């Protein structure tokens, strides 16, 4: 929460530098904020820029002790940062998912690590 203003400012600066229009809204009481990055879905460069902006926002959140997930959980785009946030617990989450869903029919390829 103490880094919220800095995080929102950095996100706005990233959006501006990338040339991406968007909006920032938040749950200020818990330090959680969201961005809406407006891109042309047919423009691969804009999509790549938006993904980079989102990755930097997530990495900054982790750097100040925050989380990459909110009340909605995570999306596929943040999946690659889950180990950075949770360390060894990320593999434990995968083992629990495998135990409860041995046929991998519940959200395959989503939240937990891939099966080996």
Lateral arrangement of strands in the main beta sheet: 1-2
The number of domains is: 2
Uncertain runs: none
Class by alpha and beta content:
alpha+beta
Shape: globular
Total helix count? 4
Mean pLDDT: 87
Distance between the termini: 37 Å
Cα-atom Rg, whole angstroms?
Answer: 16 Å
Fold and architecture overview:
By secondary structure, this protein is an alpha+beta fold. It has two domains: 4-66; 77-116. It contains four helices and two strands, in the order H-E-E-H-H-H. It has helices at residues 4-18, 44-63, 82-86, 89-100; strands at residues 21-27, 32-38. A two-stranded antiparallel ribbon has the order 1-2. A hairpin with a 4-residue loop joins strand 1 and strand 2 (32-38). It is globular, with a radius of gyration of 16 Å. The mean pLDDT is 87.
SSE blueprint and pairings:
Elements: H1 4-18, E1 21-27, E2 32-38, H2 44-63, H3 82-86, H4 89-100
Antiparallel strand pairs: 1-2
Helix pairs in contact: 1-2
Main attributes?
2 strands, alpha+beta, two-stranded antiparallel sheet, 2 domains, single chain, globular, 116 residues, 45% helix
In short:
With 116 residues, the protein is α+β, with helices and mostly antiparallel strands.
């Amino acid at each position: 929460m103490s880094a919220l203003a800095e995080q929102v400012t950095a996100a706005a600066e990233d959006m501006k530098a990338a040339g991406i229009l968007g909006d920032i809204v938040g749950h200020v009481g818990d330090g959680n904020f969201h961005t809406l990055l407006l891109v042309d879905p047919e423009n691969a460069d804009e999509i790549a820029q938006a993904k980079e902006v989102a990755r930097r926002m997530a990495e900054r959140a982790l750097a100040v002790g925050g989380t990459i997930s909110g009340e909605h959980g995570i999306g596929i785009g943040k999946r690659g940062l889950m180990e950075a946030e949770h360390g060894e617990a990320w593999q434990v989450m995968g083992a629990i998912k495998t135990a409860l869903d041995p046929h991998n029919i519940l959200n395959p390829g989503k939240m937990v690590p891939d099966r080996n």
